[in-house]
Amino acid sequence: MTAKVAVGAHYGLRDWLSQRITAVVITLYTALLIALFVWHGGVDYAGWRAAFDTGPFLVATFLFLVAVYYHAWVGVRNILMDYVKPTGVRLFLQAVVICLLVGYTGWAIQILWGPR
Amino acid sequence: MASVPRPVDKPRPVYLNLLAIRQPVPAVVSILHRASGAALFLFGLPLALWTLQASLGSPEGYQRVAAFFGQPLVKLVLIGLVWAYLHHLIAGVRHLLADVHIGLTLASARQSAAVTLVLGILLTLAIAVKLW
Questions:
Q1: Domains along chain A?
Q2: Domains (ranges, CATH) in chain B?
Q3: Full 3-state SS string of A18-85
Q4: Torsion on CA atoms A92, A95, A97, A102, rounded to nearest 10
Q5: What is the per-residue pLDDT across B16-58, written as a single tens digit (0 to 9) for each?
Q6: Which ipTM score applies to this complex?
Q7: Contact criterion met (CB below 8 Å) for A77 and B37
Q8: Using an 8 Å Cβ cutoff, are A9 and A81 in contact?
């Protein structure tokens, strides 16, 4: 029986699927941004600010960022599993990445819905 | 009994030196997919969040961000990150197509890898020209 490693991959299929679903969300939002940019023929402060005062756009942006965070977690963890062999170091780095991404989530909420 | 000469008399095992091997295009696209993803996580993500925060606060903040990205060195870094985003995105779409069994033969996989590499660079160049 293979030894179980606490910081190894557990759910290959779930990771594979979530990486693809988040990728599609990221691609769609990127297309939306490009379309808006082209539609308005560029961007200035008024238009930029107006976009981020619109509820649905804020939700779409938040959805995009959360998709990026989850996508980054799966990808970065794969990199760490490939190159960082000592279990303790890997656990530490994975914890750092999780803290960073959870922190980024809070930061995103603050940026999108906090006082400006 | 006389020993039979082996048909291939090479010293085994052979240790492969990754740096000495000429990588096929799909391998290059693959490692750049990983490298660009790492760069986007380490630098692109915090930069994007900072940009969003600083630019939304006030017209002055927006101007400050615009001025920051106007510096030649920052522009260069930005163009690097734009390439990382585009390459990662196109290589990702290539993966999604492979998932639905498009481009699985060796020839078409090599072709789509070359398209990924070239398209990423061309689009980045187009944006770089626009930025400069």
A1: 12-113 (1.20.1300.10)
A2: 30-131 (1.20.1300.10)
A3: HHHHHHHHHHHHHHHHHHHHHHCCCCCHHHHHHHCCCHHHHHHHHHHHHHHHHHHHHHHHHHHHHHCC
A4: -160
A5: 777 777 889 999 999 999 999 999 999 999 999 999 999 999 9
A6: 0.90
A7: no
A8: yes
Cα A80 from Cα A19, distance rounded (Å): 16
Cβ pair A107:B59 closer than 8 A: no
A-chain residues within 8 Å CB-CB of B120? none
Q: What are the pLDDT digits (tens) for A50-109?
A: 999 999 999 999 999 999 999 999 999 999 999 999 999 999 999 999 999 999 999 999
CA distance A106 to A15: 23
Chain B partners of A45 at a C-beta cutoff of 8 Å? Answer: 55, 59, 62-63
**Structural Rg of chain B based on CA atoms:** 22
